[in-house]
Amino acid sequence: MNEMNKAAGKNYTLGLNDFSDLTAGEFTTSCAKSMKISNEAVSSKTVFLNMSVDIPESVDWREKGAVTSVKRQGECGACWAFATMAALEGLWQIKTNELISLSAQHLIDCDRESEGCAGGYLDTAIEFETTKSNGGVPKEEDYPYKEIQQACRNDVKPWASFDGYQFVPSGDEQQLLLAVAQQPVAALVAVGDEFEAFGGEGIYSGTCGSELNHAVAIVGYGVIVALRPVILFIPPLKIEIHYTPQYSSAVVILVTPSQLVVPVDFPAQQQWQLKYLRQPDQFYFNYLKPAINNSRSIIQDLVNAQHLDEISIVNNATIVAVIVLQHTAWCFSEGKSNKGDVVIMLH
């Protein structure tokens, strides 16, 4: 595992976690089982959103108070239930201003179209909770998670009710961004072998699997070019200055039991990169300059005390370096730079 962490190009770490003592087969059975959505469900519920609406450059529903605490799935294959509940919890908060954890166990026990801890389906789960359940979805505290499938309880008071659901058109990144801009979205991903050993640090970007096998909640997105994170090494201490959300480099922010963050390389973000590579002054004044100003006092104190050994931009370093160098050259040519900015930029 240590050797794999040393591999060039990795911006995430592998390590020991709750699944480390599982075989690949056991992990697949509990957490990465093949998942599909019926073509009939997709065709009948797919809706194209109004693309005349401006798509925000970044959204983080955690900041907006529409994401509940991270849940521990354990060895029950209930990702489909948790992803469904995350989307419903977000929508409920947006509509009612009440953030509350809804019961994934209710789905595991009562949705007969799915298979409980052996896996389930997003379309049947959301269909069940919006049209078939007994008046609505119970609260987590009233119908808590047990990590096993048990008999469906009909004695629990429903709390939140929903009228329906829609699918985002498959393969349409712009439609997905627009949907996530409106609320958290449940989605399926194809995770590869390294996913089991993700250590919880960095942005997970391992090789994808061959089929959809894990359900997740997309709770935000942002631009891919940014300073994330800046790490300062100061003998004998190590200080980490974590990015602020407005400078996040994660394209899609995904919260899971191990604080997983997954980047999705959308064409829209590639176009965003090209825009700022060609117009580095806009990148500088809109993104880099505010970041420098926010961290100037910390960095300058370290420089003055001669404690600053290294500043390492560890994610998207090549792209950021190109932009910084382009802007540095532009500053010199236009006579618009000052000594402090150039020193910090060149670090």
Automatic annotation (TrEMBL):
Domain Peptidase C1A papain C-terminal: 55-237
A GO molecular-function annotation: cysteine-type peptidase activity
Keywords from the UniProt entry: Disulfide bond, Hydrolase, Protease, Thiol protease
Gene Ontology terms describing biological process: proteolysis
PROSITE patterns the UniProt entry points to: THIOL_PROTEASE_CYS (PS00139), THIOL_PROTEASE_HIS (PS00639)
InterPro entries associated with the record: Papain-like_cys_pep_sf, Pept_cys_AS, Pept_his_AS, Peptidase_C1A, Peptidase_C1A_C, Peptidase_C1A_papain-like
Xref: Pfam families: Peptidase_C1 (PF00112)
Listed PANTHER family: CYSTEINE PROTEASE FAMILY C1-RELATED
Family to which this protein belongs: Belongs to the peptidase C1 family.
Name of the protein in its database record: Peptidase C1A papain C-terminal domain-containing protein
Organism expressing this protein natively: Trifolium subterraneum (Subterranean clover)
Lineage, top ranks: Eukaryota, Viridiplantae, Streptophyta, Embryophyta, Tracheophyta
